[in-house]
Amino acid sequence: MNIDYSKETAVVAGRLSLAEIEELVAKPLDTKPDKKYFLALSISGGALMIGAVCLALSFYYGLGLWGNNQPIGWAFDIVNFVFWVGIGHAGTLISAILFLLRQKWRTGIARFAEAMTIFAVMCAGIFPAIHTGRPWLDGYLLPYPNQHSLWVNFTSPLLWDVFAVSTYFTVSLVFWYIGLIPDFATLRDRTSSKVKKTIYSLFSLGWRHSSRHWQHYEKSYMLLAGFATPLVLSVHTIVSFDFAVSILPGWHTTIFPPYFVAGAIFSGFAMVVTVLVFVRKIFDLENIITMDHLEKMNKVILATGMMVGYAYGMEFFIAWYSGVQAEQFVFVNRAFGPYAWAYWIMVSCNVIFPQLFWFKKFRRSIPVMMVIVILVNVGMWFERFVITVTSLHRDFLPSSWAYYTPTLYDFGILIGSFGLFFTLVILFTKTLPVVSISEVKAVAEGAQPSHHGGVSNA
Amino acid sequence: MHNKNLYGLTALFDNPDKIISVAKKTSEAGYQKYDINTPYPVHGIEKAMKLKPSKLGFITLVFGLTGSFIALFFMYWTMSIDYPMIISGKPFFALPAFIPVTFEVTVLLATLATVIGMITFFFKFPENHHPLHDTNYMKQVSKDKFGLVIEASDKNFDLEKVREFLQSLNPLVIEEIYHKEKENNSVLEPKFLTLLFAIFLVTSGTTYFILNKLLYMTPFDWMSEQEKITPQKPSNLFADGFGMRTPVKGTVAQGFMPYLAKGQTNPTGILDNPYLITKENIKLGKSKYLTFCSPCHGNFGEGDSRLRGQFPNPPTLHSKRAQEFQDGWIYHVIVNGQNSMPSYAPYLDVEERWAVVNYIRVLQRAKNANESDIQLSKKENLKNASN
Amino acid sequence: MSEHFEKQSIDNSPDPNYWRSFKELYNYKETIEKKYNEFEEGVTDQFDPNENLSGLSRRKFLALLGASAAFAGVACTDYRDKGEIVPYNVKPEEITLGKPNFYASTCTGCNSNCGILIKTREGRPIKIDGNPEHPVNQGKICAKGQASILNLYDPERIKSPLRKNYNVFSETEWKYVDDNIVNVLSTVGNKEIALISHKINSPTTLKLLNEFKLVYPTAKLYSYELFNNSTRQSAWKKSYGNESFPLIAWNEAELILSLEADFLGVDENRVENSKLFAQMRDVDSKKFNRLYVVESGLSLTGINADYRLKVKPENQLEFVLGLISELKKKGVISTSLEFNVNLNDVVNNLNLNQKTVNYLVKDLSDKKGKSLVYAGDYLSEETHIAVNLLNELLGNTSLYRKDSLKLNQYNLSAFDEFSELVNKINNNQVGAIIHLNCNPVYHLPLDIGYRNAITKVDNVFSLTETMNESSQVSKYVLPINHNFECWGDFQSRTGLISLSQPAIMPIYNSRQLEEILLTWIKKDSQSYNDFIYHDYLKSNWQQNVYPKYSNNLSFDKFWYSALHNGFILTNENVVLNLNFNYSSVNFKNVNKTNSGYTLILKESYALGDGRFANNGWLQELPHPVSKITWDNYAAVSFNTAKELGLKDNDLVEVKVGERVLKIPVFVQAGNADNTIAIELGYGREYSGIVASGVGFNANKLLTKNYSFSPWIYTNVQINKVSGKYILASTQEHHAFDIPREQDLHFKRHIVIEGTVAEYINNPKFISEKHHIEHESVYKPFEYKEVKWGMSIDLNKCLGCGDCVVACNVENNVPVVGKDQVLKSREMQWLRIDRYYSGSPDDPKVSTQPMLCQHCDLAPCENVCPVVATTHSPDGLNQMTYNRCVGTRYCSNNCPYKVRRFNFFNYRDHFRNGYQENPVLALLNNPEVTVRSRGVMEKCTFCVQRISDARSEAIRQGRKVKGSDVKTACQEACPTNAIKFGDINNSEEEFYKYRNHELGYYSLSELNIKPNVTYIAKLRNVHSEEL
């Protein structure tokens, strides 16, 4: 089908009434999960268990079980961390930035994206905690009065991370929860099960859809969006500082903050698309999460993909331009050294394949976009791998060069993180409205007063 | 639904345009305590209701600023005042490095304050016992209807008038809402007490395990148990259980010479005092004498023990015989001991022993000084006094 | 409830169109059904939301909170005691708790008999230092000597006498063993009692053995060394007629031509050699010798050469003769001798670098009398004679040290004698064999047949510290004391006798070897007491030594001062007759240029002849050239590898005659083509857990009837076999073929080098080229008091790795094992980096000790989130182990990659808890933390020594001085390349090196202001080479 882009298309397709919208969204919550659901859950749960076991063993025997070694102090652990934090950027971005930009189409996907953000940040949060040699002492990263009468080092990027990620998680959670309150109320009032009613009531805090409340509510939502936006940018900027603030060639780069943020949006949108494509099919939400939404996201992917590509090029240019031998070596080594394979996977997945999105046909074709977004996810994981490992494995002193080979435990924990993510996602789809009911109602046709409305009744 | 006190009257309407006009009318009718309930925010309603713009923004502002200030000050205090440390040669207050955290804390405080402020201060939430809950009215407005409620507590509320007024707005339905009666729950329910007990077991159990067991297991023990033998640490490796060993008989450590005169009766031949009497030497001798000898021999060597007869008093060091002792002999006694006096070799090194000998000489001379000595000391004192 | 409401709403429904959507919903069957049975009946009956919502009122919540807090408090009552202490009953005079004592003694790791100081804490040896007064090693001691303390505490030492019956060893009593053995020995009748031992350096032990022979007349003493200087000795005898050859005055040689000699690496007295050699590599006095090395395999000496020629060992005689005739042609030397060897032919045959050879000839003639030609122990007797001749003709004999000759207490037995012994065994003429702390089954060539013959003797007694191949086939295995539990005297050269005294009573139920023999001599197991040999030794000295050297001291004073110093000087007047016996010169085996492969079996740098195989520190000490640990290998040149299609880690089969060995290959740059170099000492069958399965036993390739020399075999076959064996190296192998990876150490100013000529021309040539002034955003912190710094003179650093082991011992550095080295997780705080430049055929080698540089602007510090690494006010970069959570960020950000992370608890991980054995707790330095798993660590500049010095200074009421502190590596360095001191104190000697005109910082562009100054290496090449 083709669409006239000159006029804004309806956000909710198929002229649904308010009640219908509500029904549609609430259906998964009312119905009992079927076999497929449990199958999916068991798969993701299994993955989670694998991760848990590997983690337990590494905790018992020590990080030696991983592939990390002397020059390569960080590998999968930090790669996964950055990867997940990146994923975690789409949600807040969609709900906050698009909200500020008055993009109505966000309503369909915002709730889901936010949920993914929170889950992704959970996954991300695990890694800094477990990558330490003595995880049981992670508390030392928090500035609390203690026996050493020692505080923390506020000049360390890792500490900025602690603050950034925890703040980001808290704010996203709050943001998400605020959005959920009216829906909780709605669910509370429509459910017939006492147990559910209790739970919904608790979380709805006794919301009454009062206009006096709506007024503050919208204000707060606006404020939160206003804060969340710079927060999103700051978080990945700070994550990039982990690398940029060091003196390691390949890490010590001023381009990192924008480059990382672009990458984060890139991978985040890719992940959202990946999951939404399934969700809208399974819970027949095609009318609420429309093809237009997907297409718009694909456009964003294309744009950010090219930003990332630009960054790749620019890194090389600057390395050459700086005239620093070590710097130049690192980048040549990336493309032609022992880890060239990783580098070229990254480039092809992140820069070459997304170019297909120049064609509307591909932007609007589910299978094509599936393939591409999954490739993008892969590519972005490898980008982090390339940055972390290839820079470390051959730095200043040739005497301390080495090669990094991941062990089964590394893979196990990576799988585990995916397991956690999808387990949470799957549980989410059955326990909470995957689309914001009140928001969608608000943008449904005829939901808002027509300009002469008030007058006519007068 | 009777003999309860009335909360208010509600009316339902079914489209946004209608509710706007209803809102206008109600506010014009001069009602203060009324509310409009809509499933989603209806644009323009606050205008119709003549609501004042939300003050929420101020909370955000205040707490945001507080956040940045607290963060900056805290970092300054920890890094520059409370426990300054040299980190990469940076100054103690490295402002650029403090910006990220400042920003994050600002955002965190601002957002949390906004939300919590709104929920508790503006909404008075959580409130699950509001009369409106579990009413048909609430069910409808939370689905797809738009409702008006006029509270009985309004100053010009009169049931009949209000009912008329509502009828005039021709709603879908009019409903009376009543207050619920408060339920009470005391702390002394058996159910609750068992809960308390369970929590008691869990918390105290885990705390005990962590503090008294876990924290003594490697690697959780902060390296308090290390595989090395510190002084006086026992070792079950040796039969005697001593971690400290004694040197092998007949060996010679650097800087030590075995005492050749051991057990000899008159060793003075091979022992002559290598140390001249100097101020430092005497000082050293004095301190060692007071530490090791004075308990028995007395501070001035008169044999006036401080042990109050718990140990046989030694003879005075000022006896004729003692004065005629050779330095070597006194040294020999210090090393070997004599009668009930043990050897002091382990506690005094060679220099210190000779120093003690010298100090004893000083005591002896001081005790029975002759005229010239007194003159001499007087001169000394004068010299000291002058400068 | 719900339906009630719906009904109600239906009732009062005036507006029909309101129903449109809702009806549809109402008729939506599924939903309705689901609604009704979404929860099974009964589940939610007695459940009232209102009640439950309010179930947890604020009041109750607070109650809960308070309660749990209170209860938590209750649980924190129990306190655990911190363990008891056991003080001395009577404190020994010399011991002060927390202060070390030092006992002068003698090292028996090899036959150099270096003087050592055994550092003890509360009567436990914890470290070995060189004895500064001792003439041989003057305060220095090699890696083996350093690490030998680990053998003292080796958990696998035999704990009490073992008796074998039915091939199982069972513990037994000394009395029982003594009685039986004495009985056996006295009833052998006319059968021989074979005493087999390593080289005997102790006069008293020899005296004892002679007495043994008197008591047991059929006793015969055999002594052997796997590596020895027999060829040198016999050659010397032929050239100059007397047994003992002189030692060399390396510090006077201006030119050294070393033929296959590793006099800086593994040769005897290498510590002394290095020290003397380095005196002629001195930037202060600008005195530089020039070192030519002619060798087949790249050795430690080779990497320090100014010029290097690759010559197969069997061709080196030819080369020397070529030199002689060339010099003669040039009229530099005059001799009637004629050798039909022409140097140019030699150069062509061996395709040597013509230019280098010309330089060599030139230098030899210029430096006549001040040059020295030195042949390695491996070479044949003829080569040695030729070299003696060349030195004689050049008048280099002035460099022979008149004062001290090598001394033999008892000549080594030739292989024939052992064959003889084997025959006797086969003819059943041997009643008993006694292994005196030696391992002939492993060491002797297989074709002597000792290994099989010994099984025919049922009375085999092994006196040994740990089980080995020889004790395995013995009837009784008797545990003997480690050297540090022994009394003894040693004389391996003229001019001095060294003494050794025990630093601790025997840890296990073992006895000193001599004590055991004495008991047997007395034929009475009761006669033993702990001091039986001490008294014997003392009385022997009273009778024989004291009278000779007494200088009007009482014997007690003489004896005690001798023990105190660890040696006595016997200024006897040595006669070194130097009239060359020209008749000795007739060479048959000249011109043996052959194309076949040549095998050279070398001594291992770390393990010696294999007696240190069970020492983890030495196993893990990287090979000074290849940096490979935990294995030996067949080193071949690049061309040879190409020919045979070999790559690193490929397995090959080396065939000498019918003797075969399967061993992995390592392609070693700078090796001579068609030569295979293998190190011995590996592949032990019966040794401890540590050595088991390590390396390959190349002793199999030895033979008694060799043609050239016992260690060098020509016409060896080598062919590739299937399979690989991965060798663990601490350094990625240098890629010679990838241009972008070439000479990075120069391009990045990690290593800066020059030539002596440049330096003479312009002493500032380094600083002018490389000094950069950096600006800093911040005003740097000012260190007003003492600030610690180090300087390393790369001219003196030979890359031997003694400092590495010293550091391990001092700082409780664990052994991690091959698997971890393969993962590049070795823990050594100090490492010797080795860089190649140039071609694989003729690589230029640079070595650089790399340790924490304690940078002022340390990159590691600002990235640590928990301030576990910070700077101390005296300029140290500190690690706070207990604060470290192990993010490894510091290591990532360290440009020198000197930080080490405990990925495991290695004491537990290596050989399942081998290092957690309680006895090894005695070894650990009590002043240094034993780090736990998950903690980052690194060089501390021996902070424990610094604080000792500080407290001592405080005791003396003064400020601590830079010269008060010596780091472990500095103490160990045989060439004094490492200096340590106070940067701020311009009075000290260190200051000179800190601000030396040749000084530079590695990676100085980074502007992190390191506190380790490297003194640029100067190569003493000919000036026209620039």
Task: Describe the structure in brief.
Chain A contains 17 helices and no strands.
Explain what this protein looks like in three dimensions.
- The complex is a heterotrimer of chains A (458), B (387) and C (1026).
- Chain A has a single domain (32-138, 153-443), classed as Formate dehydrogenase/DMSO reductase fold.
- In chain A, 70% of the residues lie in helices and 0% in strands.
- Chain A contains 17 helices and no strands.
- In chain A, α3 packs antiparallel against α14 and α4 (89-100) packs across α8 (211-244).
- Chain A is globular, with a radius of gyration of 23 Å.
- The two termini of chain A are 43 Å apart.
- With 387 residues, chain B is mainly alpha-helical.
- Chain B has 3 domains: 1-183, no CATH class; 184-246, no CATH class; 267-386, Cytochrome Bc1 Complex, Chain D, domain 2.
- Chain B contains 12 helices and 4 strands, in the order βαβααααβαβαααααα.
- A 4-stranded antiparallel β-sheet of chain B has the order 2-3-1-4, with helices on both faces.
- Chain B starts with 5 loop residues before the first strand and ends with a helix.
- Chain C has 1026 residues and is α/β, with parallel strands linked by helices.
- Chain C is built from 36 helices and 41 strands.
- Chain C has a 7-stranded mixed β-sheet, with helices on both faces.
- Chain C is globular, with a radius of gyration of 35 Å.
- Mean pLDDT of chain C is 87; it is low at 1-25, 34-47 and 51-55.
- The chains are: A mainly alpha (458), B mainly alpha (387), C alpha/beta (1026).
- Chains in contact: A-B, A-C, B-C.
- At the A-C interface, α1, α6, α7 and α11 of A face α2, α3, α4, α25 and β32 of C.
